[in-house]
Amino acid sequence: MLEVKNLHAWIEGKEILKGLNLTVKPGEVHAIMGPNGSGKSTFSQILAGRDFYHIPEGEVLYEGRDLLELSPEVRAREGIFMAFQYPVEIAGVTNAYFLKAALNAIRRHRGEPEVDAFDFLEMIQDKMALVQMDDTLLKRSVNEGFSGGEKKRNEIFHMAVLDPKLAILDETDSGLDIDALRIVADGVNSMRDPERSFIVITHYQRLLSYIVPDFVHVLVDGEIVQSGGKELALELEERGYAWLVKHPADENHSEPVPDQV
Amino acid sequence: MGLPDVASSVILGPWLDEYIEFASRLPQNEPAALAQLRNRAIAGFRENGFPSTALEAWRSTDISEIAQTPYRRVPSASVNTSPVDVVPFSYVMCGELVFFDGHYAQSFSSICDLPEDAVLGNLRDAIRTDPDKVQTHLGGYVPFEENAFAALNTAFIKDGAFLHIPRDTVMKEPIHLLYLTTGHENPTASYPRNLIVVGENSQVTIIESYAGPEHGSYLTCPVTEIVAGEGAEIEHYKIQHESAEAAHMASQHIYLSRKSHVVSQSMSFGGGYTRNDIGATLNGEGADCTLNGLYLPSGTQFVDHHISVEHTRPGCRSFQLFKGILEDSARAVFNGLIHVHPDAQQTSADQSNRNLLLSRDALVHSQPQLLIFADDVKCTHGSTVGELDQEALFYLRSRGIGEEEARSLLIYAFASEFIERIEFSPVKKDLEKFLINRLPHGEIIRQAM
Ligand SMILES: Nc1ncnc2c1ncn2[C@@H]1O[C@H](COP(=O)(O)OP(=O)(O)OP(=O)(O)O)[C@@H](O)[C@H]1O
Ligand SMILES: [Mg+2]
Fold this sequence. Notes:
The structure holds 2 protein chains of 2 kinds. Chain A contains 9 helices and 12 strands. Chain A is α/β, with parallel strands linked by helices. Chain A has a single domain (2-253), classed as P-loop containing nucleotide triphosphate hydrolases (Rossmann fold), CATH 3.40.50. In chain A, strand 9 (166-170), helix 7 and strand 10 form a beta-alpha-beta unit. The radius of gyration of chain A is 19 Å and the shape is globular. Chain B is α/β, with parallel strands linked by helices. Chain B folds into 2 domains: 78-388, no CATH class; 389-449, no CATH class. Chain B has 11 helices and 23 strands. Chain B has helices at residues 5-24, 32-48, 64-68, 83-86, 123-129, 131-135, 148-155, 390-397, 403-419, 425-438, 443-448; strands spanning 72-73, 95-100, 103-104, 110-111, 119-122, 161-165, 175-180, 188-190, 193-198, 203-211, 218-220, 223-228, 233-241, 247-256, 261-268, 273-282, 288-295, 302-311, 317-326, 331-340, 347-357, 363-372, 377-387. In chain B, strands 1, 5, 6, 8, 9, 11, 12, 14, 16, 18, 20 and 22 form a 12-stranded mixed beta sheet that branches. In chain B, helix 2 (32-48) runs antiparallel to helix 7 (148-155) and helix 8 crosses helix 9. Chain B is globular. The A-B interface holds A 48-50, 71-73, 75-77, 81-82, 84, 87-94, 97-106, 109, 141-142, 158, 162 and B 389, 391-392, 394-403, 405-406, 409-410, 412-414, 416-417, 444, 447-449. The complex binds adenosine-5'-triphosphate and magnesium ion (MG).
């Protein structure tokens, strides 16, 4: 489904991604963890089509096609969805109508008939129930004045309606209370299927006990320095990232040296 | 003041000649007060000439090209087009006065059954038939000493709308005033003069529309005076769709009495060169005045708004929201003054001017000003100039909305703060339709709003 090879990305003269490799197969859930500023959001923004990064090297294949060639809207229509770490407030654009327009753009692209307002309201009922979205959030401007948790829930609601093949969730759990975390995780779990893949970016192992990943990767300073199964998240929770960070002094060691606790 | 002497006499010559010709055809029995008003206006114009950019109010507004263009009045209306073909807006209403090239076109106008004692018709006729009702107000509100265009309009007073509503009268249907320029080989001028007087506790909705052919150089130089009696409620719209080469140099003043409530919303879409001088005097306790505006110049269009709100009595409220969307190398000027006089305690006054620049070549000068001489007041003002929010654009696109559609959606969303404030739904619907047609892939707006 997704193959990222040796991806390098620069912004403002600074290299953020330094040769990132990742392969995601259909139906898999990959978690990406890593310290602040290590490049997790940069990576998800690049996948969604943000164009202000300079990418001198590397390749991203999505269903065998060069993803970096495609505009953000074509990626979305081809099934990529990114839940923003910081969802954008858009005054004057109604949440529900915007989502309907987005859904219809995607449906047109897929050769499916467009839905009218009536069909739309009907088909979003169960998606709203899924994330326990309040009706009033539909009628308000996109994210405008939403609480932190409401914004994250709205992202998952968008995802549920747009029905992507590859969903990238950038810290969707941060800012959620315990109940909301559970609701969001249940929403994601109910969407898991053999054809749909997820990349879940998080700082907390807690989310991963609800959304159990197939793989956990650790991104440090623009590179994936460690990959493993779901146990890796637990280990990180306990030990932090320090033991994984490659210090110049460590370069001689073939294996990272665990800290003495 | 004015342009340099030698040049100015050369420039003013043709305008003064035209006035002399015009005056020679005026009826002998014109009311003395009107004759005096004309004389004062033309004398002032002759003395001050056109304003130069040395004058504060015209600092960013260079009108020398207009001053040097030989705009001439059309001697009489000769019309064979129906307004319906020309006007983008059309409403069902109580009364519609149509003017072609500044001349009242009776056969195209329609006036419904009016409430007793109400008058609606051509100002020229009203000067004869209702001299008292006219004289009390005509020329009393729009100052022309510092505005050559208002002075010219006053000198050339003839046709225009006159509406006089007695007390305790509710006009259920709106009144439409339509000013069309029909297109001539040589540059033409028209000077519509409108006087609207609304009695105590009366209500009315008025729409002024200005339009012209797609191309054609002409000058529309209207003056509108609106007088709201105690407790009167007035909803006023001005919709400007002049041709791309036209100059639209307009003045408007609203005089508000105690507890009157006036909402005046202006939309400037056409015109190569547009100037709107909008004034309001809140001259009775509890008066409430809203002045909103939307302008969207593109190409080389220039739009200038000069707003001046005078709070002379206590406990009044004024509100202003002017929004501009500029494309290409369009330019806009906004100059808004709120003047709170010493007596005007408990004034609440808000003013904001927000501009969206869609091109690097577009330019805005925005200057809100407060002059406050009372101590118990609540005033806010602010102006912003910004570009389309790239974060928002990316967010919309990342959900599948095309780039142009996303841009149009955000532009429309920017305007929607203005649109949402329009109470009269036919105007609102027409504005929505206009924007949907005007913006690339505008259908998205119908889908997403
Ligand atoms: N538009 C930008 N301009 C300048 N620097 C940027 C920009 N975007 C990202 N960066 C820098 O790139 C680095 C990686 O940022 P990124 O947002 O990808 O980190 P992250 O791993 O998502 O961090 P966090 O866990 O805090 O969300 C940071 O040092 C950040 O300051
Ligand atoms: Mg991040």
